Amino acid sequence: MARKSSIQKLDVRLRNAVDELIRDGRFTLDDILAHLATINGGQAPVSRSALGRYAQRAEEQMRRYREAQEVAKVWVSKLESEPDGDVARLLPEMLRSVAFQTLGSIGDREDGGDAQEVMFLAKAMKDLASTDKLTTERILVIRQEVAKKAATEAVKQAKASGLSDEAADLIRQKILGVV
């Protein structure tokens, strides 16, 4: 496993300054080093190459984040147009997969992740389980309604063909399970 970046080892105040300047996107590595030197009492606490590696990783993460936002916009618009479609059924599975991958990566990190990350993922998993339960209940209710309608229609057809009321009630209760 790679060792921890010297930027990550910095005091929180210095690391936040680095992150802010990188996110801004207008500053060169030399500008960031000069700013760090100003904050740190005249000397930059990290090398230019370490800062460059850190900036590259940060920019790559920001690029992936922007891509994920674009994909999410497409999925959300698809979900809005077809709330019961394939996307609606696929999303909980995708979220579950992402949550498990994230949990795995937290366990691989040296710091083991923080409690807030784990709590967030636990809440996401709980919400996914609730969604699964609600979806299952909704499907069950729909199936029961369809069965009742089918049973009612079958009994109507049978009565029209000469079936007695007692026989129709027996079919409805015993065979179709509808009261």
Automatic annotation (TrEMBL):
Could you tell me which InterPro entries the record lists for this protein? Phage_Mu_Gp27 (IPR021874)
Protein name in the entry: Terminase
What organism is the protein native to? Thauera humireducens
